[in-house]
Amino acid sequence: MLGPVILAASRSDKMRRFVSAAPGTKQVVARFIAGESVDDVVPIVRELSDRGLEVTLDVVGEDITTVEQSYAARDAYLELIGRLKELGLGERAEMSVKLSMFGQSLENGHELALANVRPVVEAAAEIGTTVTLDAEDHTTLDSMFAIHEDLRKTHPQTGCVIQAYLFRTEDDARRLAANGSRVRIVKGAYKEPASVAIQDKPEIDKAYVRIMKILMDGEGYPMIGSHDPRLISVGQELARRAGRKLDEYEFQMLYGIRSEEQNRLAAEGHRMRVYTAYGTDWYGYFMRRLAEKPANLLFFVRSILTKG
């Protein structure tokens, strides 16, 4: 019940100011956000890599309002790629991008977002890595999938994300699995209406399993984005039944969540990628992490009370 309330708060300027000023916020944000700058995140990439973990990096920020901001988002990723190149870390860290940051919602946003993300994809390829297009709310997905298809013409390793709670996703999964795409499956973390999304958590889990099976049985590269031990176990079993080797799929978890499980999976030989966000515009990302799991919210409230 709390999830939809928190998601609504993620778009409230008043709540943004309150949360930012709360005494315990900095401590809790540091659990999920790796820092505010490239200089903050590079040592974390190295540390995770030394532990046998792979990384996907997200420069957080959404809801831009100007073309200039979209260029700034593009340049932030190009700066990141440049630093990874200098340090020889390109093959251990890919990028995750939200097309909303690249101007998708502005006038002529589809063309603007494609023009902004293309040089990021090209620069990533030059250092031996790739980019995954994050899924956002359902109104943006047709544009995201079209951009994904366009980018794959020259950079077929470009990935995309699908969300299990949307009714459309099984069809999307079949199409993507058939054309050999890299696909991350997540449950979904946006407030979506009942007309387009499953509202019941057990039913979302069932849909997640059906979609995992489609991806594992397909021609692409599945990326299982989940912290749920049951879904991880099911994913391992579906991979085994599909005859997949350990390097033919991967697990993904968020930075700061279930670190011991991340290490365990990597030690067993699984590809384990840590979704690592950084940047100054952390509020929307942070609030969705609270909405996804009640324990995260309790951790936040406890921190405020003990620091107040």
The chain-level structural class is alpha/beta
Task: State the helix count.
Answer: 13
Helix content: 40-55%
Q: How far is it from the N-terminal to the C-terminal residue, by CA?
A: 26 Å
- Main β-sheet, in a few words? 8 strands, parallel, barrel
Average pLDDT number: 88
Based on CA inertia axes, which overall geometry fits?
globular
Numbering strands along the chain, what is their spatial order in the largest sheet?
Answer: 1-2-3-4-5-6-7-8
Number of strands: 8
Order of helices and strands: HHHHEHEHEHEHEHEHEHEHH
For the structure shown, list the relevant keywords:
308 residues; alpha/beta; eight-stranded parallel beta barrel; 13 helices; 8 strands; 53% helix; globular
